[in-house]
Amino acid sequence: MIGAVDIGGTKMAVGVVDDDGKVLSRMESPTEADRSYEDGLSLLVRMLRETLQDVGKKIDGIGIGSTGPVNPVTGEFGDVDFLPRWRGKNPVRDLAGIFKVRVALENDADAGALGEAGWGAGRNRSRLVYVTIGTGIGGGIILNGQLYRGVDGAHPEIGHHVIDPSGPPCSCGFRGCWEALATGPAMAAWFEHEAADSNSHDRLSAKRICQLARQGDALASRAVAREAYYLGLGLANLINLFTPDAIVLGGSVMKSADLFLDGARKVISQGCRFVPFEKTELVLASLGEDANLIGAARVWHQRFGQHEVACT
Ligand SMILES: [Zn+2]
Question: I want to staple 292 with a disulfide (CB 3.0 to 4.6 A). Which of 6, 30, 45, 171 is the partner?
């Protein structure tokens, strides 16, 4: 039984997750950027205690997945712009002290990768790239059963590989990153720009654009084709770099994956001919709405449990 903690830009969630990856109880609260660390920590402790009471069990450990940058080795929070007062704080050490259990922390995208690898769509695949496409693009890389990390435990930023250097500016400083071209907001911004020329539409969400495309709207269909193209380019780059057994696709944009995957596969087949691209399966994430909590629990298992997907 693992206490799972998911810390993101909009909400903080906790839950109790059993050894099969099932969430038995959960609670959440808004993140609130001006929240002090002490206040946030006591909120997490309160919610954890309440969910534990609900389940009536004790926890063996706590796993945390958090939007980064966080240091998975020391447990320290880095320059997290969504919780600026948490910089340099260490919830791993503090929660371990309070609950008297071992605590492990990973970037939330790495936690998601571990969750899907352990209990989801990536099971039994030793080379796996997990990609989540929503308001941003994040991901985690598992190579030969090991979570890949860069120097000092750095989390690779797969959303920030450049697809088109003349593309829209990105938050990282480049132009035309995958994240600047293939997210939901990128799709919505393109649609709005094109619609302004034809004067036919207002600003719509990516979800609404997908609905319109299904109804045969011409501009929405172009937006969907464009999304499939940029999705495909980014996936093709990952396949050329890693040729993994599978790429697991999650995030809100992938709720409409059926609109994009054929187009993306076509792009991949055009540019990945030096690797056996057809052997890389594109599969949809399977852990659903609780994926972040399940991933956070998996973080503990991969660090301290006896599982195949281990991290060094
Ligand atoms: Zn970028």
Answer: 6
Does the pTM exceed 0.85?
A: yes
pLDDT tens per residue, range 137-160: 999 999 988 899 999 888 999 999
How close is the Cα of 50 to the center of ligand 1, in Å? Answer: 39
Neighbouring residues of 297: CB distance < 8 A, sequence distance ≥ 6: 2, 3, 4, 15, 17, 21, 63, 115
DSSP code of 9?
S
Q: 52: which 2 tokens? A: 């534990």
Q: Determine the residue type at 169.
A: P
Tokens of 64: 């945390």
Query: Are the C-beta atoms of residues 155 and 68 closer than 8 Å to each other?
Result: yes
Rounded to the nearest angstrom, the distance between the alpha carbon of 172 and the centre of ligand 1 is 4
Question: H or E element: which one contains 57?
Answer: none
pLDDT digits (tens, 9 = 90+) for 212-222: 999 999 999 99
Q: Report how far ligand 1's centroid is from the alpha carbon of 201 (Å).
A: 28
- Whole-number Å distance, alpha carbon 236 to ligand 1 midpoint, is 18
Rounded distance from Cα 159 to ligand 1 centre (Å): 7
Which of 142, 137, 69 has its CA nearest to residue 105? 69
